[in-house]
Amino acid sequence: MSTVTHTGAAPDATRSHRAAAVLMDHRSARVLYLDADIVDGGTIETDWTPPRFRMHDRSEAEGSGRIRPDPRAFFQAIADAVGRADRAVVAGPGSAKLEWLRWAAARRHPAADRVEALQSMDRATDGELASLARRLLHAEPGRF
């Protein structure tokens, strides 16, 4: 079991944004909202940490022996954050971004329709993430 925490800007469910940029992996997601020249955002984190050693239970016929977190609360928090934007770019290393997008699409969450681009990248500063979103969303300078 894992818990999800928000840090940074307080989530405001009533406010709509022009665009969002998300940099995520399986443990955290940095969400930036892009409005005109203002960049605002926060971090969504889960307290799940992978085990140090691979756990293997040979008593069960099924399963890979790997312990995976239950991503529902974490993915829901990201979907709610992305759902407050009109358009979105999701970036990150590995497969977390694609797993989240498939999860949101399977649940018909509105956030899945707002994602216009997926980008593989290891890490980025807020400025680099905002620049990536502007480039991938073909935004005119000064628009967001």
Helices and strands in order:
Blueprint: E1 4-8, E2 17-24, E3 28-35, E4 38-46, H1 72-83, E5 85-92, H2 96-106, H3 110-114, E6 115-120, H4 126-136
Parallel strand pairs: 2-5, 5-6
Antiparallel strand pairs: 1-4, 2-3, 3-4
Care to describe what's here?
It is a single chain. This protein has 144 residues and is α/β, with parallel strands linked by helices. It has a single domain (4-136), classed as 2-Layer Sandwich (Nucleotidyltransferase, domain 5), CATH 3.30.420. It is 27% helix and 31% strand. The chain has four helices and six strands; from the N terminus they run E-E-E-E-H-E-H-H-E-H. It has helices at 72-83, 96-106, 110-114, 126-136, and strands spanning 4-8, 17-24, 28-35, 38-46, 85-92, 115-120. The chain has a six-stranded mixed beta sheet, with helices on both faces. Strand 2 and strand 3 form a beta hairpin. The longest helix has 12 residues, at 72-83. The mean pLDDT is 78.
CATH class: Alpha Beta
CATH superfamily: eRF1 domain 2
| Straight-line N-to-C gap | 38 Å
Query: What is the total tally of β strands?
Result: 6
CATH architecture: 2-Layer Sandwich
Structural class: alpha/beta
Radius of gyration: 16 Å
Basic shape: globular
SS field, number of helical segments:
4
The CATH topology annotation reads as: Nucleotidyltransferase, domain 5
Order of helices and strands: EEEEHEHHEH
Residues in β-strands, percent:
25-35%
Stretches with pLDDT under 50, minimum 5 residues: none
Sheet having the most strands: 6 strands, mixed
* Major sheet strand order: 1-4-3-2-5-6
The overall pLDDT average reads 78
* Helical fraction: 25-40%
Total of domains: 1
